[in-house]
From TrEMBL:
Transmembrane segments: 37-57, 63-80
Membrane topology, record value: Multi-pass membrane protein
Locations listed in the record: Membrane
InterPro entries hit by this protein: PQ-loop_rpt, SemiSWEET
UniProt keyword terms in alphabetical order: Membrane, Transmembrane, Transmembrane helix
Pfam families: PQ-loop
Name of the protein described by the UniProt record: SemiSWEET transporter
Length: 85
């Protein structure tokens, strides 16, 4: 059985990004960042940026797309944490 690796990548990126979205939406809407670790989000945002550039280096659209979306959401939460934390 031949597996289409791009399809597998798109399935993985959809699942992991969609799993992050509800928490991001809740945090963005409520602006409640008390329970969020600043250093975890700093590390997470930097990690997303590195994954994004890795995806560019590979020319891998699943990696590029998922990390772009997750970076935007995580960076928004990080900025809320810095502003309201």
């Amino acid at each position: 059985m031949e597996i289409n690796l791009n399809l597998l990548g798109y399935v993985a990126t959809t699942l992991t990004t969609c799993a992050f979205v509800p928490q991001a939406v809740k945090t963005i809407c409520s602006r409640d960042t008390r329970a969020i670790s600043l250093w975890m989000y700093v590390t997470f945002v930097v990690g997303n940026a590195v994954w994004f550039f890795y995806g560019i280096a590979l020319g891998s659209w699943p990696i590029i797309l998922s990390n772009t979306i997750t970076f935007i959401l995580a960076a928004t939460i990080l900025s809320l944490k810095v502003r309201h934390g």
